[in-house]
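Input record (one chain):
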Amino acid sequence: MTSFSRLLVFSIALLYTGAEVHAQSTGTLVVANRRGGSVSFFDLEIGVEVARLPVGPRIPHEVAVSPDGQRVLVGEYGAGNDHGRHLIVMDLPNVREVGRIDLGDRSRPHSPAFLPDGRHAVATLEESDRLALVDLTTLEIVRTYPTGGREGHMVRLSSDGSRAYVTNRGAEGTLSVIFLDEEREPVVIHTGEGAEGLAVSPDDAEVWVANRLASTISIIDTDALEVVATIAAPPDSRRVEISATERVLVPNGARGGSIAQYDRATRELLLNAPIRSEGEGGSAGILSHGSSAFISDRSDNAILVYDLDEPGILRILATDHDAPDGMAWSPLRVESFR
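The corresponding structure, as predicted from the sequence alone:
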């Protein structure tokens, strides 16, 4: 028995605590739906989906919300060979599309992130191995940056917005450090095969990268720009979140599925709790907010709420959903529910 299976300390019988979530938060959870191509808006005060906005056949995978909660940004990633080329800008309170930014041929935008000013954002262009900086007011590209890696997939920013960290899941798996305010080549750091999910620590000192195919996590020192530790991860770990309380959350999509929780300071695995009782496996996304973590489980078409104060307790926000994937949170509510 592996250390991970020994740490499955919570009974499957206790996996779900009810048919719906009792709201523990306010605001809106925004979810990108891979099936059908849409974005859902869940009002967390009442715990239900209150709106859904179609974005077209080139399905989105990831979603971002502006610092003030007003704007939503998704990319046309597409399925198979039907790749997209636009970033779609939405008004959250009114649940409407306000414009599209054309990123050109060979773009296939995947992961967006807003800069602190709320007017600008970046997005990975997976097909061209570049990162785009866009203006949400003019709906134009400001510039693009080379990543220096292959298949740039996920992006996260430093708290001041001066650096972008991009995981490149092609070839050997790397992390690119892109200096948005400098005319400087990116620093490319080898992490591990299938580098995909990543999170920047609240103090900006570390970046944690999940190497999905290597079943490892690389921890990068942002001053030294080098890997300072490599630890084991459950199979098929694709995402990483670091909570405000310094707990590192890593869901995985292996058969059964689980969410591993690490102590950031000691890098010790604290537990690995199941997120479904059955199923053949599939990707799981995660978003940490306050004392909760939202989990999008495409295998079960469910959105779950994981209680960080009561580890192992999962509540159901939605079932029979359309392949939920990336998520983001806004402090605002949809206009009709204010």
